[in-house]
């Protein structure tokens, strides 16, 4: 595992050096700035990413395509840093139809992070209208319905996601949470998730334990 992390860190370092070199050789290509900003977000260097994208927005202020992509990336910088209100301000500037659906998804996720589920639902459903077959959006809508306590609607979305991707761990896990909450058989669903992606299951197992504790205390009242 340590060796794998070292290799991955080296690959990221090489990617950053390559993009910096590309910017130095061709400072008039906004895509290199944007790509470097994305990599910096991936390694959680939000301060450097913010500085870079802000600079690029100033350099390419007459290029509409550049502005839209850079604004979206800047939104992702703030989302990654947990500054959801600031992130939404930039996502809401997106008018380019090629990334507008993605921006609506990120606004929905920003509201989700703040536990403002009704507002999240509005943007998620709008994104779903634009991208009706997108599995990630189906799961997002399912997660929001689940958070709102509408298990039937949540299950519909998870089932639709699984019709496109039968081994989608997020959808399987969501269905497991619904089954567990309603005191229905859930072990097979969680076992399948753990088999497919043990890390995902380990990262989310606390939710299972919390619900199981609530159900147990309810049964013993």
TrEMBL record:
Gene3D superfamilies found in the cross-reference section: Tetratricopeptide repeat domain (1.25.40.10)
Pfam families registered for this protein in UniProt: ANAPC3, TPR_16
Superkingdom per UniProt: Bacteria
InterPro entries the record matches: TPR-like_helical_dom_sf, TPR_rpt
Keyword Repeat: yes
TPR repeat residues: 68-101, 135-168
PROSITE patterns: TPR, TPR_REGION
Keywords assigned: Repeat, TPR repeat
The protein, known as: Tetratricopeptide repeat protein
